[in-house]
TrEMBL record:
Keyword Hydrolase: no
Gene3D superfamilies in the cross-refs: Vaccinia Virus protein VP39
Cross-referenced InterPro entries: SAM-dependent_MTases_sf (IPR029063)
Keywords, ordered alphabetically: Polyamine biosynthesis
UniProt protein name: Spermine/spermidine synthase
Biological-process GO terms, alphabetical: polyamine biosynthetic process
Record flagged with keyword Lipoprotein: no
Length: 228
């Protein structure tokens, strides 16, 4: 008889500001962060190639650049953060904004090894809170902003996130980027209306289709919006 592998609940977290609930589960050696209710899986340790591609594509212009500054929106399991650290020089800084404090704790604990403990890197700074709060200064601060807080350019984790993808917000994000800076956004689908919004916010826009894992699996889209 085939042995069933149990799914073990490792943790639960309430998303701030009347959000839903996140759970962290483990099945065999794999982890999943899910939104309880109808939404389902937010991130799995089985598939992370497109999360890595978000950093590789969004930071491609930073190879060898001293003192680069990168913002990662959404820690998840740390794959995007880990790949951003790989992509930038030793003198650079990568700020990761994470809305749910428990996600940071999970990354210090059981999730840490998934992406090679990127929180331990001395170039990492953690901002506990909504990534949108960091856009309020409107000062050209970052060489790259890498956003993966939802499943695409519409609210998924939290209703408040819908404002992030508005034309006004995209103008604000553009103002946060240094000359030749890049905003990269992860999406589970291609949304032509988002390309239009990015263009309206005066970005140079392209997108790449990447596979979920090692050239296989679902097709995901990485939007690359450059300051020209
Ligand atoms: C899909 S996961 C990110 C996966 C990540 N790219 C990785 O490599 O594992 C989304 C993450 O964004 C966080 N999040 C959602 N909305 C946020 C917001 N407005 N500000 C900061 N973090 C947010 C979630 O709690 C979750 O940890």
């Amino acid at each position: 008889m085939k042995k069933t592998i149990p799914t073990v609940l490792l943790g639960k977290a309430i998303i701030p500001n009347d959000g839903g609930e996140l759970t962290l589960t483990q099945r065999d050696g794999d982890f999943a962060i899910s939104l309880t209710g109808v939404h389902g899986e937010l991130m799995s340790s089985r598939m992370y190639s497109s999360e890595v591609a978000l950093s590789e594509l969004g930071c491609a212009h930073l190879e060898g650049v001293e003192n680069a500054k990168v913002l990662v929106g959404g820690l998840g399991m740390g794959f995007t953060l880990g790949a951003a650290l790989q992509a930038v020089s030793i003198s650079s800084e990568v700020v990761v904004a994470e809305l749910v404090p428990e996600v940071v704790e999970w990354n210090k604990g059981p999730l840490g090894e998934c992406a090679g403990r990127p929180l331990d890197d001395t170039r990492t700074r953690v901002y506990l809170g909504d990534v949108a709060e960091l856009f309020l200064t409107q000062q050209a601060t970052y060489d790259a902003i890498l956003l993966d807080v939802d499943n695409g350019p519409e609210a998924f984790t939290h209703d408040d996130n819908s404002a992030l993808y508005s034309i006004d917000s995209l103008h604000t994000i553009r103002a946060m980027l240094r000359p030749k800076g890049v905003l990269a956004v992860w999406s589970a689908w291609h949304d032509p209306s988002f390309t239009k919004k990015l263009k309206k916010a005066r970005f140079d826009v392209s997108y790449k289709t990447v596979r979920a894992h090692k050239g296989k699996g679902s097709k995901h889209t990485i939007y690359l919006a450059k300051v020209n």
